[in-house]
Amino acid sequence: MTNRMNIPNKLFAKALVAFAIVLGATFSSFSSFAQEEEKGINYSAQLDTNVIVIGDQINLLLSIEQPKSLRVEFPVFMDSIGSGVEIIKQSPQDTIPLENGNIKVNKNFLITSFDDGVHKMNPFEFKIHDENLMNIIRTDTMLLGVKTFDIDTSKANFDIVMPIHTPIAFAEIAPWVFGGLIVAALIVLLILYMRKRKKNQPLFVKAKPAEPAHIIALRKLDEIKKQKLWETGKVKQFHSDLTDTIRYYLDERFQLSTQESTTDEILKAVNAVEVNSDWHAKLKDILERADLAKFAKFTPLQDENELSLKFAYKIIETTIVEEAPAKEEKESIAVEETKKEEK
């Protein structure tokens, strides 16, 4: 019984709202124009339309034509205009010069409403500042009719449709996969770096040259010996070339990193390698004499220069890694296979 009485009531309410909207649209235009003839001011408030469907968005444009000498304050709104009309966005004031010397200032509001019915927008006030006087001018009241959707109560309500579960695509997990791999690689590199640094070894081992390191180093020593730079007064250059050659050989032979190391750091690094103590003493003698010649303005005697060169040869000859020629190795394998066949 109650439900039957409610249906006419709802229809009556909808009819009443529709009548109010039509009535508002009849007696309220889309625009409100006014004029202050004494001061040469024209102002207006315009709507795109005065009837919308609930949730629709329309523009409200406030405009005023005025002399440049006057200062006009537009009405200020926060997030709504009156009751039931919400502001979505408002633009800054736009000033346009006119041919008659005046200016036209526009300000636009994007508005909407989520309440059905007729909403009243009170007159919009502009404050006119002229010298020490302030005057207020107002537009007419404006009405905005908001229609809602018709609901068919004869049909049953439908449940909310649940989200569709789709399989996870590779593109969704790719950033996490690649990010994890990069983090793992960085952690591995950091561990390797800390271990190599502790042993004073380079992180990445250089590719072995086509020639053994001792061959290249001995050839360089032969060139230094042939130049005899100490006899022409180039003592610093001689010791610099000599220590560069020794550093290169140590790096290649023992997988060290001595190019930017001091004498103490080099000696500490070779201490970690199984070397002959006599060999170590000769290296220390070469490096310390070179430091004196390069940094302390000390000029070693000719015999001392020749001794450094001799020690360099001795270091390389003492630490050479003998490698069996590939040809001899193949021949020995072939002989062994022949002996097995004869047996």
TrEMBL record:
It comes from the Bacteria. The keyword Transmembrane helix applies. Residues 1-34 form the signal peptide. Keywords: Membrane, Signal, Transmembrane, Transmembrane helix. The chain crosses the membrane at residues 173-193. This is Protein BatD. It comes from Labilibaculum euxinus.
